[in-house]
From TrEMBL:
Record keyword Transmembrane present: yes
Upper classification of the organism: Eukaryota, Metazoa, Chordata, Craniata, Vertebrata
One GO term of the biological process aspect: G protein-coupled receptor signaling pathway
GO function terms (MF aspect): olfactory receptor activity
The protein's name: Olfactory receptor 67
Length: 137
């Protein structure tokens, strides 16, 4: 949109088309995610509590990743379309970098903290030094 705004012509058709495409594609994505979560929760509701907890834990991690991905994308998209001169240029650059860098960086952390071995190593890493010496003996 930054480049389209440089043109001398009317870009309102581009703005409407882009908004429609993003809302439809994201809307379909959200509908399919909600349908899959509903099917997961229906199938897990008849099983044991531990299976239900594992399913909800996985769904919670997935929701965090989705929000981490969609929040900066929506802000960037809507700010480019409707922000005009009110949003400073450095905010556009910051949000674009967040959108590109943060989700891939945090994906392993979000999904990895549930692993017991990683949890134990992080606890060991952040425990006092005296605990490290006791474990080595």
């Amino acid at each position: 949109m930054g480049i389209a705004r440089l043109s001398c012509g009317n870009i309102s058709v581009n703005i409407i088309y882009g908004l429609t495409v993003v809302l439809l594609s994201t809307g379909l994505d959200i509908v399919f995610i909600i349908m899959s979560y509903a099917m997961i929760l229906c199938s897990v509701s008849v099983t044991f509590d531990s299976a239900r907890f594992k399913a909800l834990n996985t769904c919670g991690s997935h929701i965090c990743v989705i929000l981490m991905f969609y929040a900066p994308a929506f802000f960037s998209f809507l700010a480019h379309r409707f922000g005009g001169k009110t949003v400073p240029q450095h905010i556009y650059i910051l949000v674009a970098n967040l959108y590109v860098v943060v989700p891939p960086m945090l994906n392993p952390i979000i999904y990895g903290v549930k692993t017991k071995q990683i949890q134990e190593r992080v606890i060991l890493l952040w425990s006092p030094i005296s605990t490290h010496c006791e474990n080595e003996e």
